[in-house]
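Re: weekly structure request thread

Next one in the queue (281 aa):
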Amino acid sequence: MLFSLLIANYNNGRFFKDCYNSIVAQTYTNWEAVIVEDGSTDDSAQVIKNMIGNDNRFRFVESDKNYGCGYAKRRCAELAKGEVCGFLDPDDTLVPNALEKMIQAHQHNDHALVYSNCYMCDENLVQHGLYPRAKQVDSSRKDFFNLGYEVLAFVSFKRSFYTKTAGIDPYMQRAVDQDLYLKLAETGSFYFIEDALYYYRMHHKGISVSNYDRSVFWHWVAIMQAAKRRNVNVEQLFLEHYVSKGKFDKLEKAVSKSRALKFANYWGNKLRIVKNVFEKK
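Done, posted below.
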């Protein structure tokens, strides 16, 4: 089975060396890496081209301008030739046997999507523990919307199931992967690998870290589209998982004004509870 790594790059040239090294170190050797350079304003294009050189396992395409994450990832999928595809962000890395584990899971069962746990890392790829929300989900449920972000990384999917969907939505600016996961959930089962196969780098310019509120918004766009396809009303679900910014700001103000320790503790606990809901992934 050929494994296609899908890499959409925008201004992550300074991190690509780590990504590249993790790809060429894979124990599974039947792979290709499809890289779409989406109009970066840094030196990404030159850095990547210099690094991959004439290695024909890498396919490098440059956009004439920045079209956005949805466009770039869809283009990756269109160019890919593998029976199995998996997203790899250019600022993240893989453990050496990541592709081998994924291929084994796909070969032994006809799953639409296979995902693993991952290591949460700082900007320097120093590990800060496993991702705590990763677990096996029941993707067959109509109310599965990955609201808890149980499916995060490393994720791979069979092309035969991908072609049953409308594919990656070029309109999506964020939560592009989440939108595809919900589409794939409507075509087949998901399988969870408990091992951590991915190093997820957290840094202030990362698309899922910067402008977090926008990421939440786009995830809800994906949820609404899935709900429409499934003929499910998600109004109550939205109300249960959303706290208005006005309510949150009032609680935050109450905490800052509270001078007595007991009241500070009381409101602090209230704030933490609401904040957990407001920022729930």
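The chain has two domains: 3-230, 243-278. The CA atoms of residues 134 and 188 lie 19 Å apart.
Next request, please.
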